[in-house]
Amino acid sequence: MSSDAPSPSSSSRAPRVAIVGATGAVGEEFLRVLHQRAFPMTSLKLLASPRSAGKTLPFGDQTLTVEALDADAFHDVDLALFSAGGSISREYAPLAVAAGAVVVDNSSAFRMTDGVPLVVPEVNPDAISDAGIGLRDGLDAGIIANPNCSTIIMLLAVNPLHRFAGVERIVVSTYQAASGAGAAAMRELEQQTREALAAPGGTGQVVSQDIFGQQYAFNLFSHNSPLQSGGYNQEEMKMVHETHKIWGQDAERGSGAAPDRIRTGITATCIRVPVMRAHAESINLTFRDECSEIKASALLKDAPGITVQDDRGANAFPTPVQASHQDDVFVGRVRRDLSQPEGRGLDLFVCGDQVRKGAALNAVQIAELLLEKRTADR
Ligand SMILES: NC(=O)c1ccc[n+]([C@@H]2O[C@H](COP(=O)([O-])OP(=O)(O)OC[C@H]3O[C@@H](n4cnc5c(N)ncnc54)[C@H](OP(=O)(O)O)[C@@H]3O)[C@@H](O)[C@H]2O)c1
Known about the structure:
Elements: E1 16-20, H1 25-36, E2 43-48, E3 56-59, E4 62-68, E5 79-82, H2 86-98, E6 102-105, H3 127-130, E7 142-145, H4 149-165, E8 167-176, H5 183-198, E9 221-222, H6 234-252, E10 265-272, E11 279-287, H7 293-302, E12 306-308, H8 320-323, E13 329-336, E14 345-352, H9 356-377
Parallel strand pairs: 1-2, 1-5, 2-4, 5-6, 6-7, 8-10, 12-13
Antiparallel strand pairs: 3-4, 8-11, 9-10, 11-14, 13-14
Helix pairs in contact: 1-9, 4-9
NADP nicotinamide-adenine-dinucleotide phosphate is lined by residues 21-27, 48-49, 51-52, 69, 83-86, 88, 106-107, 149, 179-180, 182-184, 354-355, 358-359.
């Protein structure tokens, strides 16, 4: 399939899709997810910077050519999946909407904008129709925001417990992979690892420090996003504000996700670790109502998008390597927090592929919700 050669098997009603940032870590994952899920499309347009114009990328057994993004790119697009950073989204997403497209945006540009739904399909799917955004006549073109990857991974695990017992407080520490900072960061971790291993005298010192400005291989450091007043960095505050928005939207609908509109206290510490792909998170919860370890495990086993991996006998719990390239978020170490009254506190350890569920898959699931809604309304 390409923009000038639509697949003959595509339904004429299937959307014409564009990926903005197709050559990036998330963009290439978009291609894999769309193909694996056989997402219905009339055409698929790949957009990136002028540097990548003419480059080819595989889509199943086809080869698609990348085009340079420009202001006219969206005249033949119904659904635009953006993953090219905040400044590109701020400039081009409004143009895509003006041309009639629904935008699903992976950047942080519009996440906290009033009227822009911030959606995790397993948590607050109705936020999309509440915003009146859709892929058919009578519904609006508009922007739907994909939450931050660490927020998505945390909420997949915590939301089922919140629905049951009301989470009053979350203390979360993240262990974030290189891929969260894009394709160039992955290349730098690889390069630094080679340099550190080859360094004379085993000093382990590295030369290539273009992305993070410090040694990443065999090291870890506080998340590279800008620090804010008060000492939290942006990534940490995204987890706080985005969770409040997502749960707040749901509570306003009265769907019971946040009983009595609990405004959960959240504090986060975000750390980069030299893992290539998939984030991990240690999560401590305080509940309003009782939630035992056994009940929590049962709720998590029944929850969509979760695989419970919690084998104490074998000391086998989630790892980033196992979670890589998987749709599900893996949850383990489910245990009572001994410092809190019984039933009121739990600890969890969670791993999820943030390029996939934290970005491309979540966005494609949002697009699938748009298609389901269109079919249901016909
Ligand atoms: N990586 C993750 O796990 C993750 C998770 C959630 C959200 N996100 C968000 O998704 C977005 C992309 O992240 P990424 O990790 O995929 O980054 P990346 O690997 O660095 O890819 C960036 C993409 O943006 C394109 N781009 C850069 N400048 C452009 C321009 N002037 N015009 C058009 N395209 C341009 C690049 O094209 P060229 O190749 O031509 O430069 C590339 O396709 C970011 O907003 C990020 O915050 C990432």
